[in-house]
Write a structure and sequence with these properties.
The radius of gyration is 16 Å and the shape is globular. Helix 1 (58-71) packs parallel to helix 2 (77-85) and helix 4 crosses helix 5 (152-163). The protein contains five helices and eight strands; from the N terminus they run E-E-E-E-E-H-H-E-H-H-H-E-E. By secondary structure, the protein is of the alpha+beta class. The two termini are 13 Å apart. Helices cover 34% and strands 17% of the residues. The chain has one domain (7-190). The strands form three sheets. A four-stranded antiparallel β-sheet has the order 1-6-2-5, with helices on both faces. The chain has a two-stranded antiparallel ribbon with strand order 3-4.
Length: 192
């Protein structure tokens, strides 16, 4: 599983997206297309991540992110946070791109292992949580526009129901682990 090519923050690009379960991120870029680092507590994020999120309807969420991030209008809380934040920084919408990773294959795989308990909503929350925890482990805090804590309680209860074990955290990656199943592997390719 890999991140998509970067997409400009313009609703004219929504036709290229399907309504699939996905994780997504906003990344800052320089005019020449190179990453624009973002300062964090434990150093600088060289990828330039501004936001990590999840959705079960990618095209709809893309429209919400674009509207809120570029105008400040309601629809997407972290998009509004980003819009308020850019007044103080160089990360203007022209220098930000949207990327996503389709989670349908992961949902199918987990559904094969755990049946209907592996629904799209829970799998997308697990993916977002894994990526934010890995980010926090590396940089000391969440991306700047992530205004809400991840949905840990939902995912913890789901993992406990699936495996019978309370999840813990990997000391090397910061991601959720549970005895009996590798909840890190599906998302390793997305951690950069």
């Amino acid at each position: 599983m890999k991140w998509s090519s970067p997409i400009p923050l313009s609703t004219s690009h929504v036709h290229t997206l399907g309504n699939v379960p996905a994780v997504y991120r906003l990344v800052a870029i320089k005019p020449d297309g190179e990453s624009l680092p973002v300062a964090r507590v434990f150093g600088s994020d060289p990828v330039g991540r501004i936001l990590i999120g999840e959705t079960t309807e990618l095209a709809r969420r893309f429209n919400q992110v674009v509207r809120s991030a570029t105008t400040g209008r309601s629809g997407h809380g972290p998009g509004i946070t980003y819009h308020e934040w850019i007044g103080y920084h160089q990360y203007v919408p022209e220098n930000v791109r949207f990327q996503f990773a389709d989670l349908a294959p992961v949902t199918t795989s987990l559904r094969g292992a755990f049946g209907e308990l592996a629904d799209e909503d829970t799998v997308t929350k697990l993916a977002e949580l894994q990526l934010i925890f890995a980010y926090r482990h590396r940089f000391g805090d969440a991306p700047p526009a992530n205004s809400q804590a991840p949905h840990y309680n939902d995912v913890e209860a789901w993992i406990k129901e699936l495996t019978g074990n309370t999840p813990t955290y990997s000391k090397s990656t910061g991601m959720i682990i549970a005895p009996g199943f590798d909840f890190e592997a599906p998302f390793h390719d997305l951690v950069d």
